[in-house]
Amino acid sequence: MIIRPRRLRKTRTIREMVRETHLSTKDFIAPLFVKHGKNVQDPILSMPGQFQFSPDTLLLEAKTLWDTGVPALILFGLPDGKDATGSRSWADDGIVQIAVNTIKDRLPDMVVMTDVCLCEYTDHGHCGIIVDGTVDNDGTLELLSRQAVSHCRAGADFVAPSDMMDGRIGQVRHALDEAGYADRGILSYAVKYASAFYGPFRDAAESAPQFGDRTGYQMDPANALEAIKEAELDMEEGADMIMVKPALPYLDIITRIHDISLLPLAAYNVSGEYAMLKAAASKGWLDGERAMMEMLLAIKRAGADLILTYFAKEAAQLLKNGN
Ligand code: PBG
Fold first, then answer.
1. N or C: which terminus of the chain carries fewer CB neighbours within 10 A?
2. Which of 33, 140, 144, 162 to mutate to test the pocket of ligand 1 (most atoms within 8 A of CB)?
3. How far apart are the CA of 6 and the centre of ligand 1, in A?
4. What is the mean pLDDT of residues 124-144?
């Protein structure tokens, strides 16, 4: 007798009945870039379909996302000035603070997250302050805490530290509690690799390091046990959700963290993953929509509960129309 798995693939209806993984618009967190100005919507060349928004146009984009069923966004700021310590990152009139305030004022139910890091705000482009030519861990923690508190003061629901300094989750948690923000959450970029797939983002956020690279603080792509260690530390230090980043080249890591995590797990489908697909699709080398949905489904199947993705709006529109 032949065992016949194909019986369960015979019709579309049967296939839908036995499908193990489902994507929902509620899985998505949309990353958005914001800069000062009015009525600005500057295209990001290496990420077709993505823009640098000013707060007013950002609000319209947030509204569209919300109306399409996307519940959350994460903001990246382009400040009006950079210095050695990234001081514009914790200014109450900083760009992210203005943007958070604008969105929460008009869309109070939308979950607003903020990336907490110094690289967009420092003139050297590193994720921490420089002491004796290297990125100083402990001195950076205080500045990240200031930034996180300032984002919460503006109304952020979750802060997402992406710097990869040791001990930052515990320190940021403590600072938020002290400042009266015990009710705000932390989405930790717990497992963040030193990846070539961040290239387009660094154009978009104007945050490329001016010397060296990030291998002294972001993880070695060769390591998996270290990912478990990083995830466990952030859980102990008080993260509410943890993240693996990038997503597609690290599906094995997503699965391993999913298997040990008691927290919701997010995966960041990063700029390079987006750019690759868009480039191939624009040449007609693959079917952009199908490849996008397959990519997102694979990330979810691997074990991600939430996906940070530049495809959020496009994929949510497809899902809403029943695809
Ligand atoms: C900031 C940060 C980066 C990304 C998210 N937060 C860039 C980096 O670490 O160099 C990358 C996101 C993407 O590529 O889409 N530290």
1. N
2. 162
3. 43
4. 95
